[in-house]
Design goal:
It contains 14 helices and twelve strands. The chain has 509 residues and is of the alpha+beta class. β11 and β12 form a beta hairpin.
């Protein structure tokens, strides 16, 4: 930019001196011609018409007033020399003077035309310089190409965004940085632009030098020459990676909020129904107890026993509903998550079956949390049994503990991942996995009441934690539980170990 300013400044200065030189030379020609005219015999007085060459030469300065002044000087000089030679008032003198006047008028007209053209050229150069400065300093990638798709301009922001230098892209086809799907429809886009159409704020992807794709918002407009003919097109690409990431995060937050509200409403409904149903079951169980104590008939006693067992199962279901609704009394205490996993594994080894491999990766330091131990063990059992049912032909269950931090809280959290290599779930099922009476198990196998994951959700949220599900059909599922660490109760440092890193989501195999 400094060089361009220096060049414009010194170029205009040089041009100014050139004008002065042309006008001075024209004046000198007039003076020389006058002296020669005075020195020649009267028979050669026609040589005095050379004085008219002065205004003609001055026209090269492109300054009409300077040309008019030189013409006036030539006219005065011609009149003076002809009068000195005794030709005053003659026809020849009149012809000489009118010739000078005519040549001066023509020279002024030529100089004015050159001046207009020069001013337009300067304005065009200034406009092009301003436009070039805007393109060079723009934060958006600006790419110009001809109607055959060959890149003719590639600004610094395009170099920064896509990693290609201008020398690499200028003269190359535009397909080099288009995604395959955009490259396929590019001929149609060119035809639309040729017809005068344009594309505004279209979101697409561009291929970078390192092989990655960049999300951009692009606008494509035709480039016209001075006759209005479309000779090319210009694309303006804006990096929207950050904006798109923010929009995705906002959509996820809104989706989670809506899901939480839906589950909260379901929890209130389930809690109210379970509470009333539990009261009715308590009455029925009491009457069954009385009947069992009073009957002596073996068949009747057997039937009442089966009825009581069924009522007790119904009572257990209502308890699970109350856990989901967080209306069941709890006894929270500071417990070590690793200890809970270790103790629960003993029971799991006998429960999940011999064809399933159970693997645990525990954090090397204790992970103190505030929760109800029995309910947390129940949540682990429910998740492990759910994983077992998703692997009828055997597989692997991985239980991993660690620490992590989340954006909404400055305090560290304990992380518990339960991963299986089972059948996984499609998105339409995974979205409702934690809702009561919505079973994630296959209908053909006829198992599952839809309360296991709902109870887990209630247990985790009651402990102040969160649970998320990452799943893929045919690959497996990962349940990720985050629980606040109770560091104040133990004083344990849980962040200075290699196991404290947060993998964001455990890879699903």
């Amino acid at each position: 930019m400094r060089y361009e300013s220096w060049r414009r400044e010194h170029g205009s200065l040089t041009h100014g001196w050139w004008r002065v030189g042309v006008v001075s030379f024209s004046v000198l020609i007039i003076i020389m011609a006058s002296l020669v005219d005075l020195a020649t015999p009267r028979e050669l007085t026609a040589f005095g018409l050379v004085i008219a060459a002065g205004p003609v030469l001055a026209a090269a300065s492109a300054r009409p007033w300077a040309v008019a002044a030189v013409g006036a000087f030539a006219w005065v000089t011609a009149w003076a020399t002809s009068s000195w030679e005794g030709l005053g008032g003659t026809t020849y003198q009149q012809v000489r003077l009118w010739v000078i006047v005519g040549m001066t008028v023509l020279s002024v007209a030529v100089a004015y035309s050159q001046h207009v053209l020069e001013r337009r050229a300067n304005q065009g150069a200034a406009y092009e310089s301003t436009l070039a400065t805007i393109i060079e300093s723009s934060e958006d990638a600006i790419i110009a190409m001809d109607m055959s798709g060959i890149i003719v301009s590639w600004n610094p922001s395009a170099e920064r965004m896509y990693g290609y230098a201008a020398t690499e892209m200028i003269g190359k086809p535009v397909h080099g940085y288009l995604s395959p799907e955009r490259a396929a429809i590019f001929p149609q886009i060119m035809e639309d632009i040729r017809q005068g159409g344009r594309i505004s704020h279209f979101q697409t992807r561009r291929l970078c030098r390192d092989g990655t794709y960049l999300d951009v918002s692009t606008s494509v407009s035709p480039i016209r020459d001075r006759h209005g003919t479309v000779v090319g097109m210009a694309a303006i690409d804006r990096d929207i990676t950050t904006l798109k990431r923010a929009q995705d995060q906002r959509e996820q937050i809104l989706e989670r909020s809506a899901r939480a509200e839906r589950l909260e409403s379901l929890g209130q409904l389930a809690g109210g129904i379970a509470h009333d149903f539990n009261n009715l079951l308590a009455i029925n169980l009491n009457y069954l107890e009385f009947a069992l104590e009073q009957t002596t008939d073996p068949d009747t006693h057997h039937d009442l026993t089966r009825a009581k067992a069924s009522a007790e199962r119904a009572r257990d279901l209502t308890r699970q509903l109350l856990v989901f609704a967080r209306k069941q009394p709890t006894t929270a205490e500071t417990i070590d998550l690793n200890t809970v996993i270790t103790e629960t594994r003993t029971l799991l080894d006998r429960t999940i079956g011999a064809n399933i491999e159970l693997i645990t990766h525990l954090h090397p330091q204790p992970l103190p949390i505030r929760a109800d131990r029995a309910r947390l063990e129940q949540a682990l059992l429910n998740l492990a049994i759910n994983a077992r049912d998703a692997m009828p032909d055997g597989g692997m269950i991985i239980i991993e503990s660690g620490t992590t931090t989340i954006e909404d809280s400055p305090h560290p959290h304990a992380r518990l991942n339960i991963t299986d290599t089972g059948t996984g779930m499609p998105p339409d099922i995974a979205d409702h996995a934690f809702e009561p009476f919505f079973t994630t198990k296959t209908k053909e196998r006829g198992i599952g009441l839809g309360l296991g994951l709902a109870a887990v959700y209630g247990i985790v949220t009651e402990a102040g934690g969160t649970i998320t599900l990452a799943t893929q059909p045919g690959v497996g599922s990962t349940f990720r539980i985050l629980l606040p660490l109770s560091i104040a109760d133990t004083g344990t440092d849980t962040s200075a170990t290699t196991g404290s890193s947060d993998p964001a989501e455990l890879p699903i195999r």
